[in-house]
Amino acid sequence: MRVRPGHLLRQWMDRRAVRGARVALVYRTIFILPTRTGLLFTAVVIAVWLGAVNYNNNMAFLLCFLLAGFALTSMVHTFRNLLGLRLTAGNAEPVFAGDTAAFPVHVENPAARVRTGVAVGTTPPDSATMNLPAADATTCMVEVPAGARGILPLPVLVVATAFPGGLFRAWARVRLEAECLVRPAPEPAPVPEPPGTPSPGSGSSNRPGEDDFGGLRPYQPGDPLRRVAWHTLARGDGLQTKQFTGEAPDRTWLDDEALLDLPVEPRLARLCRWILDAENAGYAYGLRLRGRTIPPGNGSRHAARCLDALARFPQ
User: Least C-beta-crowded within 10 Å: which of 37, 163, 225, 240?
Assistant: First the structure.
């Protein structure tokens, strides 16, 4: 397989990328090269210099030196536009495989001058630039495609600028300690119901159900919003949840041993679909994975706990 020189150069720079939970851009971490505009500008300066030498024209020499001085000044200021910046990153919110993870990256400008035209991302030429106020900080979101289930680390970031003038491009490659938990993508509905799923009418009449109003109880995180007694909140009696009595579905277990005929990833996708369906249906469910058992429950926190267990399942 043929390896392109550009790929080898990126690998070499990635090995020199500064790593850590918080990094600061110093002299040895910043690269700078002329842009295409800068190369064209250099060709013009050389042409002016050749003309000045050929015709011994003092005004042409003056123009040549002015242009060269402008280029050198632009190079220094482009480099200083990145020098001293500090970056930290936070963990992204969990996503499903195939979605896009959004990592918050905090960029701090400790200097008493504004930093203009700074881009942060995995592909800086396609990233929007931002201006950093003096002695201030800002947060940008770096989007990374989440391909496979598991833990997605934040890839190497590129901090780049071509300000001022656009003749030079300075950049630094940093590897920040941040990650995103990628949950398995749910199997498209409809899917077979899990074994032991209760059917309507199979519950006991003295269990909580949906038939008759049975009173109020204090609100607990994860209670469905449709059961919140908003009129008691309006009276100033606090947030309470309506209780009902009658026939209702019992608890059910979602067990991966019931899907041993499926490969690992399709099995986790089926369990993910069952968790989402059970959460939407509003009945309690538990999860059994090899080596881990999550007791039955309901609510957004319980669903997140079950989905995170699927994401961390050994590959």
Answer: 225
- Pick the closest to residue 178 from 153, 146, 150 (CA basis): 153
User: Do 62 and 89 share a domain, yes or no?
Assistant: yes
Q: What is the pLDDT of residues 291-310, one digit of tens each?
A: 788 888 888 899 999 999 99
- What is the rounded CA–CA span in Å between residue 129 and residue 287? 45
Residues 108 and 178 in one domain: yes
Q: What range defines the domain where residue 284 resides?
A: 184-199+250-315
Count of the separate structural domains present in the chain: 3
Residues 6+ apart with CB under 8 A from 102: 92, 93, 141, 142, 143, 144
From CA 22, how far away is CA 111, in angstroms rounded?
A: 17
Sole residue written with tokens 């002015």: 66
Least confident of 27-36, 48-57, 151-160, 290-299: 290-299
Q: Are residues 162 and 66 in the same domain?
A: yes
The DSSP 8-state label assigned to residue 54 in this structure reads H
